[in-house]
Amino acid sequence: MGLFGKLLSKIKGTAHASAADWDELEVALLEADLGAKLSSRIVEAARSAKAENAESAIVAALHGALSKKSREIARALTGPTVILIVGVNGTGKTTSAAKMAAALAREDSQVLLAAADTFRAAAVDQLQTWGERLEIDVIHGAANADPASVAFDATQQAVARNVDYLVIDTAGRLHNKNDLMAELGKVRRVVEKIAPVKEVLLVIDATTGQNGLMQAKIFAESVDVTGLILTKIDGSARGGIALAIEESLDIPIKFLGTGESAKDFAPFDPEIYIQGLL
Amino acid sequence: MFDSLTSKLGGVLGSLRSRGKISKADVESALVEIHEALLEADVALPVVTEFIEIVRGRSVDALATVQSGSNQAQAIFEIINAALTEILGGNARRVRFAKQPPTIIMLAGLQGAGKTTLAGKLAKYFADQGNTPILVASDLQRPNAVTQLQVVGEGVGVPVFAPQPGNGVGDAVKVAKEGVAFAKAKLHNIVIVDTAGRLGVDATLMNEAIAIRDAINPTEILFVVDAMIGQDAVRTAQAFLDGVGFDGVVLTKMDGDARGGAALSISHMTQRPIMFTSTGEKITDFDIFYPERMASRILGMGDVATLAEQAKKAFDPESSAKLESKFASGEDFTLEDFLEQLQAMSKMGSMSKMLSMLPGAGAMKKQIENFDEGEITRTQAIVQSMTPTERRDPKILNGSRRIRIANGAGRTVKEVNSLVERFTQAQKMMRQMRNGGTPQGLPPSMAGMGAGMGTGMPRPGAKVIQKKKSKSGNPAKRAQEESS
């Protein structure tokens, strides 16, 4: 991290940073996938402030980009809280679903997992392996079953067993495939016949570029996304695209996936994130 | 893929074309717009800068030598086309085969890039060319990656060497080594080794990949990367290049709407060719990468070469020849032939994918995306609900037959009527063609299925047109032919 460190130390004590310094900052922001719009807005904010106030101006601009919505998991008043995990292929939905369930189980909640990714080869097995490791039951259907039917069965089970949370893993789908997005809408509608879906979490890979905005926009249109899980943040990528999504669509990042084990999952803390960027 | 880049570049070139004479200032303002378009498309900054420099230098030279406005615009268009092709890797290289079989292909990449799915597609591709590939399951990290590879292998009918259950158990290096030995013993000529996904910065996993590489000495290491990757593409690619190293790149999820900047950056920054692209969830959604074709697609000129190749693959030469000779002998094109063509077309892949390869497809993007793929299936269902006699002679289709067909196909009589109507027109057109006329319309199987599909498609009987006119011995038929 440390996007701004270099510039901040450079302008410390001087009256103004040079144009080249500002360009350098903008390049650094672009390279962190913040996108052209957000990058130039932050640079402008810092530039218009006095040198000694540059840091606080940047912090304020970053705060301004972040969503004001709650980053907590919304709870159902009665019955199980249903959490739907969605996203494009290969972002880490199955792993995130398992980690999410593990995090909830650590808080002494009763959790059930549903393997509604009936498309990808062995995705159900993958979630079941996680379930065995974590000692959490996984509801699944036959191979290539209708994902909505698996989700429905799982919701019925969740109500019958009176669990606190049901985490539903879905198949990865590219957001420009209308039929697959419609299928996801159906999963949601079918579940809601039994219990309200309190959270729809979109899993975004931290290495994603500006395409992430389109992903979030279209998923939000189809299934009303309530939050983001930013995964693979342990790599070299800074996940600036998530900030761009917060800014333009007002969808809060709720969790970070930081590694391969069940513990590598944490609630998103905007203060720590901003400090990390500085 | 590349849609927004295509439309932006199209706009820039369009405004250049509309000028009488192009000045240096015009070129500069065009370059500013291109710069912005490339950045928005996630192209890495250094690549953008270099691209702009190349185009600027050559355009200024061209302006000095070419005088009139429209020729100048064309010259700049060609400069951009050439520069794009260069950035995309110039002349592509195909997979090298080992002098001593087996050829060993190792896959490496980030988690979730699509390595395991790609392993299956690659295996199918090689098997279709008459090779005897085997898949080796060396991803022992991700839960059930081994099972996934087994399912994928079973799907494409390629054996999978998987002695270890995975899920964190077993030695990936040992599996890879034994897999290669097994392939040698069983005379498989290609070994595809699937490895665990790893982050560029994860030293432990990178060392495992290096250990696998050193143990099996692969003929090719392919770096598998998600086309939706952002500015991190270059860092990640560099980390893999410095770590395990790679000889070629495979881009996956090319069917998304990513702007394709990674495609434009990685090959250029690492000086490694892009060899394949993965374009969908079906096992056959897999293409060889051609830089010049991709450049032409980005500039909105379509990719007719790929379309023609796919057509050639899908249309079985035997049935084409049969149709041709039937056609030459003066027999009518029947619904049976029509059905055969429809089936061949559905083998070519999704209709929207084919349509998007046509020149100018960018302008009808929305229609293409929402093309109803079910149309072909429904048409097939209607034809298949007819008796063989009806297929050969649709004239006998009276009202009650049509009702029966509609019920059989689960469609309405109106749809049956419109199919018969369209078919009759197509048949008429075929007769015209046979008589050496130039039909103003579409090839028969395309009738009523969207405009402009004729380009690049093989037309059964196309040769006949030049060869001869009809020689029907039947006077009635002869008269009909001559009148039409």
UniProtKB/TrEMBL annotation, chain A:
Q: Which Pfam families match?
A: SRP54 (PF00448), SRP54_N (PF02881)
Determine if Hydrolase is one of this entry's keywords.
Answer: yes
In which compartments does the protein localize? Cell membrane
NCBIfam families xrefs: ftsY (TIGR00064)
Provide the leader sequence positions: none
- Looking at the UniProt record for this protein, which Gene Ontology cellular component terms does it annotate, in alphabetical order? cytoplasm; plasma membrane
Organism per entry = freshwater metagenome
UniProt similarity note? Belongs to the GTP-binding SRP family.
Mind telling me which Gene3D superfamilies this protein's record contains?
A: P-loop containing nucleotide triphosphate hydrolases, Signal recognition particle SRP54, nucleotide-binding domain
Q: Where is the SRP54-type proteins GTP-binding domain?
A: 252-265
What keywords sit in the KW lines? Answer: Cell membrane, Cytoplasm, GTP-binding, Hydrolase, Membrane, Nucleotide-binding, Receptor
Recorded GO molecular functions are:
GTP binding; GTPase activity; signal recognition particle binding
Chief subcellular location: membrane
Bilayer topology term? Peripheral membrane protein
- A GO term (biological process) for this protein? SRP-dependent cotranslational protein targeting to membrane
Protein's UniProt name: Unannotated protein
From TrEMBL, chain B:
Indicate the segments forming the SRP54-type proteins GTP-binding domain, all copies. 273-286
Alphabetically, which GO biological process terms does the record hold? SRP-dependent cotranslational protein targeting to membrane
GO CC term (a single one): signal recognition particle, endoplasmic reticulum targeting
GO MF annotations for this entry? 7S RNA binding; GTP binding; GTPase activity
Q: Name one Pfam family in it.
A: SRP54
Q: What is its EC number?
A: 3.6.5.4
In the UniProt record, does the keyword Transmembrane helix occur? no
The family database entries (SMART domains) matched by this protein are listed as: AAA, SRP54, SRP54_N
- Protein name stated in the entry: signal-recognition-particle GTPase
Keyword vocabulary terms for this entry: GTP-binding, Hydrolase, Nucleotide-binding, Ribonucleoprotein, RNA-binding, Signal recognition particle
Source organism per entry reads: freshwater metagenome
| Entry annotated with the keyword Kinase | no
Q: Which PROSITE patterns match?
A: SRP54
Into which EC class is this enzyme placed? hydrolase
